[in-house]
Design a protein that fits this description.
The protein has helices spanning about 5, 10-15, 65-80, 85-95, 130-149; strands at about 30-35, 40-50, 55-60. By secondary structure, it is α+β, with helices and mostly antiparallel strands. Strands 1-2-3 form a 3-stranded antiparallel beta sheet. It is globular, with a radius of gyration of 15 Å. Bound molecules: zinc ion (ZN). Zinc ion binds near residues 39 and 64.
Length: about 150
């Protein structure tokens, strides 16, 4: 697969080898689970939500380097953030993965903050089969946020 090296840039490997916020949170933390049957990736997202802020997040699961490093980056990016900001970030990430939204009722994207490490996953868009790996943690996060309301 030509160009695959591009996918495994240093940041991605770093998050894969040293995943951030790995573990579990005890109830009443929200627990959401995602599965990508195409690749065999599994993600569990645990969320502590207080006053509209994700005060803590832990990630469990296993799978390919893209799914696990994306989950690690996601956890680092959303910890301590308000839910509204997190939802905006999820949309930006999906946009980066070329996942279009046609709902005109959604508010405009706030792109004022840098994406940071998440930019490293931009190259995944060239490999459509891996997009589901990269977005798995983010869809699981949305599930968890919906449960927390
Ligand atoms: Zn995968």
């Amino acid at each position: 697969m030509p160009g695959l090296e591009d996918l495994y840039r240093e940041i991605i490997l770093d998050h894969y080898r040293s995943p951030r916020n790995r573990g579990e949170l005890a109830p009443p933390a929200v627990r959401a689970e995602g599965h990508n049957p195409l690749c065999g990736d599994e993600i569990q997202v645990y969320l502590d939500v207080k006053d509209g802020i994700v005060t803590d997040i832990k990630i469990g699961g296993q799978g390919c380097s893209i799914s696990q490093s994306s989950a690690s980056m996601m956890s680092a990016a959303v910890k301590g953030k308000p839910i509204a900001e997190i939802r905006n970030l999820v949309r930006r990430f999906k946009n980066m993965m070329s996942i279009e939204e046609d709902d005109e009722s959604t508010p405009p994207l706030d792109e004022s903050k840098p994406l940071g490490d998440l930019e490293a996953l931009r190259g995944v868009v060239k490999f459509p089969v891996r997009i589901k790996c990269a977005t798995l943690a983010w869809n699981t996060l949305l599930d968890g946020l919906d449960q927390s309301i």
